[in-house]
Write a structure and sequence with these properties.
Cytochrome Bc1 Complex, Chain D, domain 2, binds heme C
Amino acid sequence: MKFLVRAAAAMGLMALLAGTAHALTAAEEKIVERIRPIGEVCVEGQDCGDAQPVAAAAAETGGARSGADVYQAACFACHATGAAGAPKLGDAAAWSARIGQGMETLVSHAINGFGAMPPKGGCMACSDEEVANAVQHMVDNSQ
Ligand code: HEC
């Protein structure tokens, strides 16, 4: 009796092993799809099907925030109103001489502070890259 059970188990195992070679049925493919690891990463250069390569998606998912987002969160308070003498977004006259200094100087002033402009506009949680994105956003919309 014991032997029979074991033989049956072995046969079952063999059937299982043999079974792995067959092409997946639609139902099995669905299971594979369901147990696929979450957050599988598709790296740029790979064939990712519809998935966005990581580099392209970074801005939306945890990477540096866009200039528009940072501006709204950290710069808007002064640069939309002209508070403390801040050059207003969209005011080409107020920006032209500043833009003339070059992006490097503008970004450095925004990061380190300049006159009544506090370092990073007071947003110490903003990365240098995010502040630079915000400067670019203001410059792009003020010429
Ligand atoms: C508390 C108010 C305030 C906030 C918030 C603020 N700024 Fe300013 N900003 C100023 C003022 C005032 C000036 C003008 C300083 C001057 O010319 O003396 C200025 C000037 C600037 C300039 C021009 C610098 C130059 O060299 O002429 C840039 C670029 C700038 N801000 C970027 C930013 C960015 C990016 C943010 C958000 C991350 C931000 N600011 C947030 C007040 C602010």
